[in-house]
C-alpha cells in the first residue's frame, strides 16, 4: 500500500469513528455530551472497543476517565500518556477533544496491524471532564492523574442540584479513590495531545498541522457595575447613573486594549442587566472578563490596564465598580524535546509544521504538573470550534495520524523512552 493510499484509508476510518462518536449526544444542533451523562456512558462503550482494537485494555477509573493501557504499561514500564476529553460544550462540534482520543487509538491500531511493537508503555485516556459544562468544573480527570485534584470540586452542583461527587458515584466512579490515581512522575515519559487548532492560523498558512510551544494562561473576573435606577422618561439625561452605559464603555475600552497588545486576547462573554426593564434606567450590570496569554507578565499587565481603565470610566459617570477574580490557570510551556520530536515526525512525513502557541486551555495545563507535555494541532475549517459546523478534512485526519505514528516509532528509538 502506498503512503498516499494508506493516508487516505487512515483518514477515512478516523472520520467514520468521529461520526460514530458524535451520535452520542443530547438532541439538538451539534454535539452536547456532558460529564457523567447517559451520552458519556454510551460513548465510552464505543471508545473501549477502539482501545481493544488498538491492543489496549480499557478501564473506567475513579474520576470518570476511560483509560486504555498496553501490556508494558500494565507491567509498570515507563509510559507515554496520550489522550484528550470526551465532553463537549453545549451544541459543540465533533472534533474538539474527541479527535485527541480517536486519533492516537487509530495510530496505535495501524502500528499493531503492521506488526510494530512499541518498546515502552502506552496509555490513552478519554478524560471525563475538561469543558466544565455541567458542573462549571474543569480538568477533573487530568488533575486526578497529575495529583492536583481538589476534593472541594466534588461539592459543585449542576443545574438540577446534583453534586459532582453524587454524579461520579452513579456513573461508576469512586470519589474517595481519586487521590490514588496520581501517577508517579518517574514512571511517565510524557503527555502528548492531538487537538484541532480552534483558530485560523493553520488555514491561513495552508498547513495541515502545527506544533504547539505553549498553552495559554487564563484568568476570569466577575465585574459588577452599580448605578441608580430611575424612570427612563422623566429622568434628565445629564447626571444619569446608567450602569449599562458605563459597562458598555468598559467593554469597548477592554476591546481597545486587547487589540493593541500582541499575544493577549480576551472577551466579555456574559452580561446581565438589572432590573432589565424596557423603561427603567439600568441600576446594575454584571459582566465577565476573560483574559488569555501564554505569558504571565503580559496577562497581568493587560489585567491592570483593563481594570484601571474600567475604574476611571466608572468614576467619570458616578458609578461603583467591583471586580472579583473567579478563575486562574497559569500558562505552561511544552517541553522542547517533545516540540522537536513532533517537528521531526512532521518532516519525516513531508508535512510543514510551524511552531505556534495555543490560545485555548487543554488537559495539558493539568498534566504539566506531572510530566513534560507536547501538542499537535490539526487545521480546522474557518478556525471554527465550539460550534456545530466545526470541521476537519479527511486528508488532514490522515496526515495527522501518519505523523503521530512516525512520532511513536521514533520515540521507541529515543533513550528518553527507556530511561
UniProtKB/TrEMBL annotation:
Transmembrane segments: none
Known cofactor(s): Mn(2+)
Keywords from the UniProt entry: Hydrolase, Manganese, Metal-binding
Family to which the UniProt record says this protein belongs: Belongs to the peptidase M20 family.
Protein name: M20 family metallo-hydrolase
NCBIfam families: hydantase
Pfam families per the UniProt record, alphabetical: Peptidase_M20
Keyword Hydrolase: yes
Subunit-level organization: Homodimer.
Amino acid at each position: 500500500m502506498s503512503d498516499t493510499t494508506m493516508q487516505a484509508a487512515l483518514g477515512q476510518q478516523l472520520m467514520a469513528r468521529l461520526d460514530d462518536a458524535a451520535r452520542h449526544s443530547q438532541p439538538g444542533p451539534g454535539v452536547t455530551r456532558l460529564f457523567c451523562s447517559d451520552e458519556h456512558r454510551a460513548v465510552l462503550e464505543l471508545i473501549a472497543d477502539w482501545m481493544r482494537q488498538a491492543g489496549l485494555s480499557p478501564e473506567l477509573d475513579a474520576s470518570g476517565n476511560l483509560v486504555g493501557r498496553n501490556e508494558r504499561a500494565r507491567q509498570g514500564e515507563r509510559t507515554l500518556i496520550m489522550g484528550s476529553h470526551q465532553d463537549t460544550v453545549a451544541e459543540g462540534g465533533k472534533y474538539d477533544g474527541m479527535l485527541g482520543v480517536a486519533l492516537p487509538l487509530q495510530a496505535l491500531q495501524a502500528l499493531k496491524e503492521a506488526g510494530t511493537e512499541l518498546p515502552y508503555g502506552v496509555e490513552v485516556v478519554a478524560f471525563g471532564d475538561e469543558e466544565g459544562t455541567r458542573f462549571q468544573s474543569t480538568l477533573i480527570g487530568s488533575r486526578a492523574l497529575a495529583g492536583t485534584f481538589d476534593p472541594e470540586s466534588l461539592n459543585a452542583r449542576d443545574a438540577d442540584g446534583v453534586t459532582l461527587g453524587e454524579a461520579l458515584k452513579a456513573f461508576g466512579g469512586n470519589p474517595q479513590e481519586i487521590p490514588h490515581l496520581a501517577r508517579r512522575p518517574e514512571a511517565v515519559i510524557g503527555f502528548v495531545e492531538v487537538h484541532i487548532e480552534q483558530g485560523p492560523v493553520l488555514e491561513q498558512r495552508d498547513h495541515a498541522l502545527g506544533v504547539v510551544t505553549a498553552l495559554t494562561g487564563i484568568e476570569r473576573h466577575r465585574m459588577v457595575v452599580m448605578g441608580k435606577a430611575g424612570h427612563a422618561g422623566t429622568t434628565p439625561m445629564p447626571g444619569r447613573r446608567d450602569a449599562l452605559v458605563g459597562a458598555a464603555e468598559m467593554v469597548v475600552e477592554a476591546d481597545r486594549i486587547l487589540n493593541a497588545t500582541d499575544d493577549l486576547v480576551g472577551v466579555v462573554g456574559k452580561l446581565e442587566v438589572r432590573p432589565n426593564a424596557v423603561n427603567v434606567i439600568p441600576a446594575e450590570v454584571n459582566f465577565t472578563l476573560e483574559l488569555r496569554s501564554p505569558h504571565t507578565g503580559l496577562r497581568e499587565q493587560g489585567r491592570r490596564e483593563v481594570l484601571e481603565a474600567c475604574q476611571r470610566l466608572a468614576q467619570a459617570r458616578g458609578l461603583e465598580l467591583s471586580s472579583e477574580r473567579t478563575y486562574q490557570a497559569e500558562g505552561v510551556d511544552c517541553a522542547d524535546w517533545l516540540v522537536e520530536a513532533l517537528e521531526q515526525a512532521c518532516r519525516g512525513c513531508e508535512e510543514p509544521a510551524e511552531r505556534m502557541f495555543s490560545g485555548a486551555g487543554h488537559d495539558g495545563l493539568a498534566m504539566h504538573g506531572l510530566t513534560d507535555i507536547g501538542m499537535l494541532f490539526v487545521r480546522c475549517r474557518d478556525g471554527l470550534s465550539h460550534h456545530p459546523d466545526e470541521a476537519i478534512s479527511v486528508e488532514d485526519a490522515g496526515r495527522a495520524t501518519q505523523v503521530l505514528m512516525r512520532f511513536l516509532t521514533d520515540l521507541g528509538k529515543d533513550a528518553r523512552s527507556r530511561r
